[in-house]
Every structure is written in structure tokens, then in C-alpha cells.
Amino acid sequence: MITVQDIHAAKAAISEIIHTTPILQSEQLSRLCNNQIFLKSEHLQKTGSFKIRGATNKVKHAVQEGAQSITAASSGNHGQAVAYIANQLDVPATIVIPTDASQCKVEAIQAYNGKIEMCGTTSAERIPRAKQLAEKQTGVYIPPYDDPYIMAGQGTVGLEILEQVKDADAIVVPVGGGGLISGILTAIKETNPGIKVYGVEPKIANDTYLSLNNNKITAIPATSTIADGLRTSQPGDLTFPVLQKYLDDLVLVSEDEIRFAFSFVMERMKQLIEPSSAVAIAALINNRLPLANKTVVTVVSGGNVDISRIGELIVPTNHQ
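== Threonine dehydratase ==
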């Protein structure tokens, strides 16, 4: 497992590339949740999500080890992040994306000089192709979450929270493959174990919830949750043991609850966040966690929303 020392090393390695993202507050959100709520704003990070942290740590290491090219399999935030840092380091990057990827995501990757290759519609098709390209090109495949350098890079979010919100009682984190929360858990629990760390998943993308209940990695079928950044089929082999060791609890939220949280943040805070980010806020709004009158940091993991989807995500918030 990674250690807090690995995360401090990652912070030193990536500090010249990434932003230290701000902490935002909303009195309305705090009242609604009956806690003092702070938002760790990774939607304001370079490339629009926390993914640049782990990608920078991993790609820099790969280049130092002699990689002549970089590949990744992703239609979203991970692909954009890998393309961005590879471009910064002047290393060619190929991002293998699904044939049905939205045009805005294709254009975002291309804006960072990433080469696009389309392959199938599932990660099971994309990942082998990305690994094959890496072998052909004397390159390195950059996984989205199940890698110690990726996990350590994401853990720098936790180090920043410790510096920015010194009296935090709890941190709430969206859970997909587990790269973000495993890094944050390591940073927090190996520095100040008294701080609670909670994970949140969509009810219809509950692979980590089931895995924790079953005490073993458990896969689920493909899901259609609106939290598209959390559509993993199972937690990672490296990330899952960290959750088993350190996580205080993991809760689930519905699609309607995610929509309400997304809409509330847009309407009341004027922030465009991803539905994947909204799951953590949804858990607080709907009292899923044993928290009252506490200082709580919720991690807003990203803000890359396809503009054409916003209409289907918005719901009225005036009944709260």
C-alpha cells in the first residue's frame, strides 16, 4: 500500500504543474445540511478535475524511467489529464476512446495535442488496445486509478485539505475506482486519524459498496448512472485494500438526489460541477451520514460537464 510519505513525494513532484484549489463555502448549503460545509474545488483544477494530480505524478515518473510515449484508455477526465501532462513534458500521447465518445471530449483531448484512437464502446475493449499501443511505441500505459503513483498523486488533495481546513471533522469523497479516496484516506488517516472519511456512490453504481459488504472485490454490470465518472465495474486491486483498512463508511445516493445536489450547487453557488462530484453533496443534503454541527469538507472532484446534457440534469430546488 502507498504511504503518506509517497503522497508528500507526489506533492513535491507535481507542485509546479497543478493548482492548489480553493475552498468554497455556502451558508445556504451549510444550513440545509446542518453542518458547516466546505467544498474542496477540484472542478477549478487544471483540465477540470483532480485527475491531473495522479496523471502528472505517474507520467513524470514514466518519462524519468525512459518512456518515449504515453497511452491511456479514457473518454473523459483521465484522458484529458494524461494528454495535458504529456504535452507539457513534450511526450506524444495516444488516448484510446470509445466510438460513441462525445465530440466535446474528443476536442478537449485534441486541444492538449493528444492523438485520438477510437476502439469499441467498453473499457474491456479500450484498455487492451492502449496497452498494445504502449508496447509498440516503447511507451507506458497510464491506468486511471489502480496504480501507486496515481493514488499518491490524488492523495495530495488530502494534504491540501489538512492545510486549508485545520479543524475539519470529516471529509466526504465520491467513489469510482477508488484512486481519489484511497489517496485521501492515506493522507488523512496517517496524519490525523481522528478525522472521519466517508465515501459516496450512486445506488446504481454500487460496486465498492457491495465489495465492502462482501469483504472482497465484487463486480457489477455496466451502469447508466448520470455520475458518468463513477461508472466503474469494480474497485481496484490496489485501491480496495486501502478502503478496507481506513474508510469510516460508504453510503449510496439516488439519481434524483444527485440531480438535486447538482442543481443546488449550480443555482445557489453558481458553480458548474459534475454529477460525479454532486454525489458527495447529495449524501450530506439527504442526511446519509452521522454528522450534525460538524465541520465537513466535501471533495468536488470535477467540473467537466457536456453542455448539451445540462438540461437533463437540472431539477427545481425551491422546495428545500
